[in-house]
Every structure is written in C-alpha cells, then in structure tokens.
Amino acid sequence: MRIGLYPGTFDPITLGHTDIIERAARLVDRLVIGVAINRDKRPLFSLDERVEMVRHECSAITGCEIVVHPFENLLIGCARDVGASVIIRGLRAVADFEYEFQMVGMNRAMDSSIETVFLMADARRQAIASKLVKEIARLGGDVSPFVPPAVGDALKSRLA
Questions:
Q1: Active site annotation includes 41
Q2: Of these residues, 17, 89, 125, 134, which one is catalytic?
C-alpha cells in the first residue's frame, strides 16, 4: 500500500489545498493530511478546529482513503509515524520551490527512503495563501473565491 503525507498548517484550508488533496488522492492508496501544530505561526483556528475543517472538506474526495492526522514533531518523523513513503507538497511560485528544495535536502538527509513529490498549484489557485485569505477576511473582503463555503463562514464568525 502506497501511503502519502500531505502536511500543512491549514489555517484555514483553502481551495488551493483541496486542489492538491484531490490530485494527490489519485497517486496513493492512503493519503494522510498532516495538520501541523505550528506555534510560531500563531494560528487563527485551534488545532481541533483546523482538523475538523480538513475532515469536513475532504469527506467527499474520492480516489483513496483519506486520514487527517495532527502532528507536532518533525515532518520526517510524522512521515515515519504514519508509514508514508512519499511526502506531497504543493508549489505556487518560485519562492515556494526555493524553500521546499531546502526541506527536501534536509528530509533526505534524515531518511532517504521517503520521497518528496511536488504538485504545481492549478493556475486558478496559484495566488491563494491562507495568510492572505485571513487578511482579506479581517478587512471585510469576500473570501468565497478562495475557500470552501463552510470555511468562509468560519472565518466570518471568528473575525466578526
């Protein structure tokens, strides 16, 4: 069984994330969505809220078994914990590649048996970033082009 890990903070999950999840689900037998506990990012939503949002948005995605797994350890440790042989990362721009390129090198040094696969963001979703979505929502803008409806409602409620 090929197990993939798609990690992120998902604060909140966006249409860019769901695009990558849908495409990754066609590549593996089980896709683990690793919801990172990243205290440095000061998330708007709690870990439980982010996990629930991801579960809700992934519930209709088909192609493989999808599991949502919160984690706080190193990404490579999480990959080992869930039995992943591949880490899936989404790329939006050159700046993403530079950061991810460094991460791949470090991860391979820690465990060369785990591959990293990059999926390019769909052209319609390349500009979407959770940080920007939160900024738009804070300033009263319409986030509906960037997040699923339930996430948009959660953002409005949280920032009201």
A1: yes
A2: 17
Q: Is 156 assigned a catalytic role?
A: no
CA distance linking residue 92 with residue 43, whole number of Å: 21
CATH number of the domain that 57 lies in?
3.40.50.620
- pTM of model > 0.70: yes
- DSSP assignment of 51-88 equals HHHHHHHHTT--SSEEEEEEE-S-HHHHHHHHT-SEEE
Domain of 32, in residue numbers: 3-159
Residue keyed to tokens 């695009």: 19
23, 92, 108, 158: the catalytic one is: 92
Kindly report the length of the chain: 160
Rounded to an integer, what distance in angstroms lies between the CA atom of residue 102 and that of residue 109? 11
Encoded tokens for 88: 């899936």
Q: What is the pLDDT of residues 104-127, one digit of tens each?
A: 999 999 999 999 999 998 888 888
∠ CA 46-51-53 to the nearest 5 degrees? 95
Annotated catalytic residue 144:
no
Active site residue 92: yes
Q: Which residue among 41, 131, 138, 156 is the active-site one?
A: 41
Q: How many domains does the chain have?
A: 1
